[in-house]
Amino acid sequence: MSSNQKKFAPEWLLEPKDINSIEQSVWPSGLARTASGDVSIAGVPVGQLATQFGTPLMVIDQNDFFARGKKVKKAFDDAAARIGTSSKTYYASKSLLTTEIVKWIDKLGLNLDVSTGGELALALAGGISPDRIGLHGSNKSLFEIGKAVTANVGTIVIDSDIEIERIASVAGAQDKIQAVRIRVNSGVHAHTHEYLATAREDQKFGIAISDVPALVEKIRSHSHLKFLGLHSHIGSQIFSMDGFIESVRRLLPLHKQLLAGGEVPELNVGGGFGINYTSADKAPEIEQFADRIADEVAKICSELEISVPVLCFEPGRVISGPAGITLYNVGTIKDVQLNEDGVSGVRKYVSIDGGMSDNARPSLYGADYSPILASRVSSAASVLSRVVGKHCESGDIVVKNCYLPEDISPNDLLAVAATGAYCHSLASNYNYVTRPAIVAVKDGSVQLVLRAETEADMFARDPGYSEE
Ligand SMILES: Cc1ncc(COP(=O)(O)O)c(C=O)c1O
Questions:
Q1: pLDDT digits (tens, 9 = 90+) for 25-75
Q2: Distance CA 177, CA 274 (A)
Q3: What is the position in ligand 1's atom list of the atom closest to the CA of 95?
C-alpha cells in the first residue's frame, strides 16, 4: 500500500501482515479458515449457511456463548466468595434476546434482566423461572408493572419516584410483596461514548444520591414492597476499572446510611464490561473487573464497618457480543478518490446487502468493527476500505476503517466480527429492508434461532398491502 493511503487510515488501524489471517481476539473461538480457504464457524462453512439461510445472516457460535456465560458467572461467583459474600449475575437481555437465548441463560444458571414488557414476554415464553427475572426500564407503564408483578418477577428496579406508588399499588392489589431495587444516578462518568454513559447527572436514568434516602423511606413505608438495595449502571463498553471503583465508593456510604432504617441485603453494580471489536482493542478479562470491584467493595465495607452485601451484576455484551458474527454478500464496489491537504489517496467502498438496519452501532455511536473476506483466501494486496450498507444515508457504515484484499468482488462473502450484541436488538426496517435470520452453530450442526423476516411480516400492519 502506498504511504499516501495511510494518511486516510486512523492511527490504531494496522495493516495486517496477512490479509487472510484471523485475529483471534475479535472472532468467536469456533471460527477458522478451512483447508480450502473459506471460513467455517463451529465446523459449518459460511458458504453453506449463506446458501441455506440467505444474507445478511447473524451466526452465533453456541459453544463460545456458553463458554463466555460460564466464565462471567464464575468470575463474579469466585470474586464474591473470596470477600465472604455471594453474587447474582443477570444477563442483560437487551444485548440479544430470543426464546432460545433464554433457554441458554437458564441452562447457564444466570438470571435475566429485561427492560420492557416485550422483553419480559419473551423471557417468560423462553421458560425461565420468573423469580430469576429482574425488570428494569426508565419509564415502566402500569401495564408493564402489572404484567411483571402478576408473573412474579424476582425484582423490579425503580427508576423514579412515581414508580414506587405504581408498583406498591399493583402489588397491594394482588396481595404480594414485590422486591425492588432503586437505581441511583451516581454522577460517575464511565470512559465511553457519551450516549453509552448512563450515570452522569444530566441524563434520564436513576435517582440522584441526595434524593435516595427519602425514596427508600417511602418504599419501606409500603408493606407490599421489599427493599433489596441500590443499583447503578454507569455505562457500556467500558475498559477502565475507574468508573466501577468510583461508583462503589459513592454507593456504599449511602448503602450504610440506609442500613440505619432497615435491611439492605444487596448491591447491584450493573453491567457495561467492554469487549474487543478491533485488533486495537484490549478489553480487560472479566476476572479483572470482578476481582477489582470485589476488592474495593470489601475494603470500603471494612472501613465503614458494615457487612458485605450480596453483589449483583448485569453483563450483556461481554457474553453475547463476541459469540456472534454477521455474514454479508458483497454488492457494488467503488474506488473513491481522496484528497486532503494536497495528499491524494483511494478508499475502496464495499457495499453489502445490509447495513444500518442490521447494525446501527456505527451510525449511533461511531462504533468500529472488523471484517474479513470469508468465502475464499486472496493473494491480492490489502487496500484501505470502508464497508457500507444499502440504505439512503451517507452515515450507513458497517465498518468505517479496515483493510480488505484489492480483488474483493461482487458475491464474495464478508464476515463482520463481534455483532452478537446490540445489532439484532437495535435492528430496524429502515428503507423497508427485512431483518436477518439468526442461526446458532454448534459442533457442525445448525439451528435456526430466528427466521429471516419476510416482506409479508414487514407489511402485515399495512391494511392496503396484499401479496401478489
Ligand atoms: C441497566 C443496564 N444493565 C446492564 C446493561 C448491559 O450492558 P452491557 O451489555 O454493556 O454489559 C445495560 C445496557 O445498556 C443497562 O442499561
A1: 999 999 999 999 999 999 999 999 999 999 999 999 999 999 999 999 999
A2: 36
A3: 9
